[in-house]
Amino acid sequence: MEGVAIDGSSSGTGSSDSGEQKPRRGRRVRMTGAERREQLLDIGRTLFAEKGFEGTSVEEIAAKAGVSKPVVYEHFGGKEGLYAVVVDREMRQLLEGVTGALTAGHPRELLEQAAFALLDYIENYTDGFRILVRDSPVAQSTGTFASLISDIATQVEDILGMEFKNRGFDPKLAPLYAQALVGSVALTGQWWLDVRKPDKAEVAAHLVNLAWHGLDGLEQKPRLIGHRKN
C-alpha cells in the first residue's frame, strides 16, 4: 500500500485481564492521487536541488515519500517525468513573477521591479532556482533556463525600445541591450544565491545603478579603442 497518515482514533477497544485498556489501533488514511503527486513533486524538488538529476534516484524519492517505486512511475512515468514537471513549474513561477512585477511607468522603476522579481524568486524559491541554473538533461515544454532568460529579456526589450526611441538611438538594438541587462542580473543572482550579502535591496540598487547610468551615458555609435576592429 502507499504511505499513509496515521489517525489515533479507532472504533473498538479492548481490556487486558488486569482491567487496563489496550492501545487503540491506528486508522490508515490513504492520500488522494493529487495529494500524492504534490508530495512527490515537493520531495523531488528538494532532492534535485541538493543532488542534481543524476545524483537522485527513483528509489530515494520513493523512500522519502514512504511508497514503493511503482507509485512514482504511476504518477510521472519515471524520474525524467518528475524532473520535467518540477522544472516546468519553476520556470513558469519565475517568468510570471518577473512579468507580473513590471507595472510601474518610469523606466528606472521598471528595471528595479525586474531586478527585485528575480531576487525575490531566488530568496523564496531557492531550491527551484538551483535546479533551473543547472544544465538540464531533460527537455521541458517551457524550454531551458537560457530560453527563460530570453523570454524575460523580451519584456525588458519593450522598456528599452521606448527609451532608445526617445533618446534618438536605434530601437533595433534594444534586444541586444535587453539580453545583456537581464543576463547580468541572472548571473549576479546566481552569485548572490550562495553569499546572500549584501542584502537584497542593496543588490537590486547596485544592479539598477549599473544598468541605468550605463544607459544614461550610452553612445549612439560606440567605438572600439583596442587594436581589434572585427
Automatic annotation (TrEMBL):
GO terms classed as biological process: negative regulation of DNA-templated transcription
Record feature DNA-binding region, as residue ranges: 57-76
Residues forming coiled coils: none
HTH tetR-type domain boundaries: 34-94
Ranges of Low complexity composition bias in the record: 7-18
Gene Ontology terms, MF aspect: DNA-binding transcription factor activity; transcription cis-regulatory region binding
Region (Disordered): 1-32
Protein name according to UniProt: TetR family transcriptional regulator
Organism of origin: Streptomyces gardneri
